Amino acid sequence: MDINPQLHPLEVNPKTGEPFLRLLSHKNIIITPPRLSDAPLYVSILNDERVIHWLSSPPYPYLLEHGEWWVNQAKPQSDKLLAELEEARNDPTLKIVDACPVGSIREVKEDGTDIFLGNIDITLAQQPWELEGTGRLSQPTPRRDPNDPDIWTLGDYLAPSHHGQGIMSDAFKTLLHQWGIPRMGVRRMVITTLEGNKGSVRVIEKAGFTFRKTIENAMQVRGTMRGVHVLDWSA
Ligand SMILES: CC(C)(COP(=O)(O)OP(=O)(O)OC[C@H]1O[C@@H](n2cnc3c(N)ncnc32)[C@H](O)[C@@H]1OP(=O)(O)O)[C@@H](O)C(=O)NCCC(=O)NCCS
């Protein structure tokens, strides 16, 4: 198969044609585009107290229809990015794009099958405390002004069966350094975690971020006011 050089550093599964990013240290873990068949797999993970308690946006209980809604918007976004990269196939310089076409974390078994483990996504920050000090009230699209870098943020979760094995630390470092910085032009990130989320704070600190502050009662999450920790990074 003739691999599109614009996918670099993504690899392509020779059997399925699906692009993927392999984690730098956990070689049996890959990040692929979302698949329409994933929707039911989100349901058990996102209804688990060890996961949902630390996420602000998913509904609870998380139903199959929520998973279907999510994958039905995520898959076309990934397809659109891949089409954009295909269009640039013959361009000698690597195209800078607004997102990553892969975000679904999967463990590859010895027989070649894989299991869905979670999700990771770098997007433009939108929370007021993430944009604090930038003079921006929102970021509809990246500006890529070298003197005034866009603020990017992270969204992620992992199946509890795989917590504490260093997978998300590896996934975040891999995604940021292999795709975020070179292919999206990420130069600044501000990440919010819900107050008390020690695992997430460690993942972010281990990627080189500095703890900026804790804000009490910062946001309402499914009817309860929660505090947040804010962490910062600049290239
Ligand atoms: C946060 C989360 C993504 C971490 O993923 P993970 O793969 O388990 O994290 P890692 O194994 O890479 O651990 C990173 C560090 O955090 C520490 N850690 C992990 N879970 C922890 C916990 N519950 N309490 C304290 N420390 C924890 C690990 O010991 C490790 O630190 P170390 O290397 O200094 O020992 C995962 O726990 C998760 O999905 N949580 C629910 C959803 C969530 O919080 N998402 C983030 C939203 S901002």
Automatic annotation (TrEMBL):
Q: Which residues form the N-acetyltransferase domain?
A: 29-210
Q: Which GO terms describe its molecular function?
A: acyltransferase activity, transferring groups other than amino-acyl groups
Name recorded for this polypeptide: Acyl-CoA N-acyltransferase
Lineage of the source organism?
Answer: Eukaryota, Fungi, Dikarya, Basidiomycota, Agaricomycotina
